[in-house]
Amino acid sequence: MWDPLMPPVAGLKLQFHTNWVEPGDCTLSRVERHPYAAQAFLPLDVGRYLVTVFPAAPDGGPERRAAKSFVVPGNRGVIYRQGIWHAGISVLDDPGSFAVLMWRGAPDDDQFADIAPLMIDIPSSR
């Protein structure tokens, strides 16, 4: 959630962003976590979207084999618990706009990990 126009100053930060539908299948290869803060996504104008989370492996990285994915209706928000590995939100039907709330302050609170490609099977109906 780093934005060069919004330096990491301690406090609750609000961002707005639009996600675009990615063509083809949904294959994940990079995940992130925020060890010091929860992150809330509030849909503003969204259809269905995909949320994928991973528990931590014994070495602290994401446990790819234990990934859980959820298709979330556009009238429900999600909060990623502090420290949970997660993929970026993927909108499924149309572009979607979200408000994102997150406490900022720790300089190393955005951690990323590459994973072996993981294809997510998504139901095709709305």
UniProtKB/TrEMBL annotation:
- Source domain of life is Bacteria
What GO molecular function terms would the record report? ureidoglycolate hydrolase activity; ureidoglycolate lyase activity
What Pfam families does UniProt report for this protein, alphabetically? Ureidogly_lyase
CDD domains, per the entry: cupin_UAH
Enumerate the catalysed reactions: (S)-ureidoglycolate = urea + glyoxylate
The cross-references to SUPFAM superfamilies, in alphabetical order and at most eight, read: RmlC-like cupins
Q: Which UniProt keywords apply?
A: Lyase, Purine metabolism
Keyword Amino-acid biosynthesis part of the UniProt annotation? no
Per the record, the GO terms for biological process are: allantoin catabolic process; purine nucleobase metabolic process
Instruction: Answer whether the UniProt record assigns the keyword Protease to this protein.
Output: no
Subunit arrangement?
Homodimer.
Mind telling me what this protein is named? Ureidoglycolate hydrolase
Q: Which organism is it from?
A: Paracoccus suum
